[in-house]
């Protein structure tokens, strides 16, 4: 069993999206870690770019099918977040930052392990924070320093930590409608509230 990701190369398509798809494939092919989505194969035809990975379910779909509730749900999420942090630490030790962490960058294998994917925007820490292309609309999960440079940038991975806080909020509360919603903890387990509050602090430092 495998999962196949496909990106259309039809004429008139978005060249920026195609460049991102190729960048993500290249990163996935070169990064090997038990908590990063496992690359198996790829193929590019005139019509489509295909990426073949280990069999996984998108985290967004997994949460719809198995919403975290009770102690077992919280333990599954705690383990999944620990796996994600291990993958992010590996990227950091390799001098890389993810820049797109969120529900759509995380996948779950048949054993329940969370895997980090969505590597299209991964960049070296020496390259700084990438600017958002004009065609890319702002997202509620974007760290505040992206729209307000006066806040400073903090460490290279500060944006990934903000996005991790948003991901934690969305795992328990559903899609984040706007950044201000982070001030309401909703269904967050009490033990997660202190680290969550640090992750979504307005100061990137």
UniProtKB/TrEMBL annotation:
Region (Disordered): 124-155
Residue intervals of the Protein kinase domain: 1-205
Listed GO MF terms: ATP binding; protein kinase activity
One Pfam entry name: Pkinase
Signal sequence region: none
PROSITE patterns: PROTEIN_KINASE_DOM
Superkingdom of the source species: Eukaryota
Residue stretches of biased makeup (Pro residues): 131-143
Family (UniProt): Belongs to the protein kinase superfamily.
Physiological role: Regulates COPI-mediated retrograde protein traffic at the interface between the Golgi apparatus and the endoplasmic reticulum. Involved in the maintenance of the Golgi apparatus morphology.
Protein name: N-terminal kinase-like protein
Organism: Vidua chalybeata (Village indigobird)
Organism placement in taxonomy: Eukaryota, Metazoa, Chordata, Craniata, Vertebrata
Name of encoding gene: Scyl1
């Amino acid at each position: 069993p495998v999962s196949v990701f496909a990106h259309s190369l039809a004429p008139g398509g978005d060249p920026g999206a195609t460049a991102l798809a190729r960048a993500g494939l290249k990163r996935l092919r070169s990064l090997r870690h038990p908590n990063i989505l496992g690359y198996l194969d790829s193929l590019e035809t005139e019509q489509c770019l295909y990426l073949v990975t280990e069999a996984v379910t998108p985290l967004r779909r997994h949460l719809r099918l198995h919403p975290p509730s009770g102690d077992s749900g919280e333990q599954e999420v705690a383990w999944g977040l620990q796996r994600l942090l291990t993958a992010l630490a590996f990227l950091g030790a390799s001098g890389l930052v993810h820049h797109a962490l969120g529900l759509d960058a995380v996948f779950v294998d048949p054993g329940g392990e969370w895997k980090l994917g969505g590597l299209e925007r991964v960049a070296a820490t020496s390259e700084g924070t990438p600017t958002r292309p004009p065609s890319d609309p702002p997202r509620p999960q974007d760290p505040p320093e992206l729209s307000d440079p006066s806040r400073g940038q903090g460490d290279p991975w500060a944006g990934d930590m903000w996005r991790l806080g948003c991901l934690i909020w969305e795992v328990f509360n559903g899609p984040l409608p706007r950044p201000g919603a982070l001030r309401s903890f909703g269904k967050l387990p009490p033990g997660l509230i202190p680290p969550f509050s640090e992750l979504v602090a307005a100061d990137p430092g």
